[in-house]
Design brief:
The protein is α/β, with parallel strands linked by helices. It has one domain: 3-Layer(aba) Sandwich (Rossmann fold), CATH 3.40.50.150. 24% of the residues lie in helices and 25% in strands. The chain contains 7 helices and 12 strands. An 8-stranded mixed sheet has the order 7-6-5-8-9-11-10-12, with helices on both faces.
């Protein structure tokens, strides 16, 4: 099945367990525009938290030039994801926990990955808490990156759902702060374009972006000073 984002059609995954097609990145249309622009300008996509494969499938299937990687700690989720995804030559999946998975990326891609433009989708925080170590490692070792942290507190709009992760907690683990820009959504959480999760009217999910790049925000993001 295909879905239209930014006047272009993209393949989305069919979940064989739930018998439904599923959209990536919470189907927040504001974030999707930003994410797709980032993906069009990257060589690597790294996800922590494969879950049922919705996100990694979307990126690997629609951006065949991108080298994609995802890890998952839960055996049941991992098995379902592999069944959903099938075989995509540009996607490497691994039953492994983060941040250990991040520490081993260069065994698949070589040390050159540290100098490449990498998009990270950080979402491995169910029944584990690797976020601080993930942020510390990425900002200390990678030179060009855009990190999307999912389930993040948007302090000025509490209707964005979150898992309690906030900017104050991660500040001590952000290295090279003078080289980075940090963003959060500035659009209203009640807007219909961010309330589209699989078209089932679930609410929007908060996120934070940390980047070395001059990403296109489309006026959808607010820069956060730390």
């Amino acid at each position: 099945m295909k879905i239209n984002y930014n006047n272009k059609n993209y393949e989305i995954i069919y979940d064989k367990f739930y018998n439904s097609y599923n959209t990536p990145f919470h189907n927040d249309l504001f974030m999707m525009k930003i994410m797709i622009n980032c993906l069009e300008n990257t060589e690597y996509f790294i996800e922590t938290g494969l879950f049922f494969g919705y996100t990694s499938y979307f990126v690997a299937k629609n951006f065949s030039n991108i080298k994609c990687y995802s890890c998952e700690i839960n055996q049941d989720y991992y098995n379902k994801a592999i069944n959903n995804i099938g075989i995509l030559d540009n996607l490497k999946t691994e039953l492994n926990q983060s941040p250990n998975a991040l520490y081993g990326l260069n065994k698949y891609y070589g040390d050159i990955i540290f100098d490449k433009n990498v998009v990270f989708w950080i979402d491995a925080h169910w029944n584990t808490d690797p976020l601080n170590n993930e942020i510390n490692y990425i900002t200390n070792n990678f030179n060009k990156f855009t990190i999307f942290i999912d389930d993040f507190v948007v302090p000025y709009d509490t209707k964005f759902s979150n898992d309690g992760y906030n900017i104050q907690n991660i500040i001590p683990y952000i290295n090279n702060k003078n080289k980075l820009k940090i963003y959060m959504p500035c659009y209203d959480s009640s807007h219909s374009d961010c309330n589209n999760i699989n078209n089932d009217k679930l609410g929007p999910v908060g996120y934070c972006i940390i980047t070395t790049e001059n990403i296109e925000t489309y006026g959808f993001l607010k820069e956060i000073n730390i």
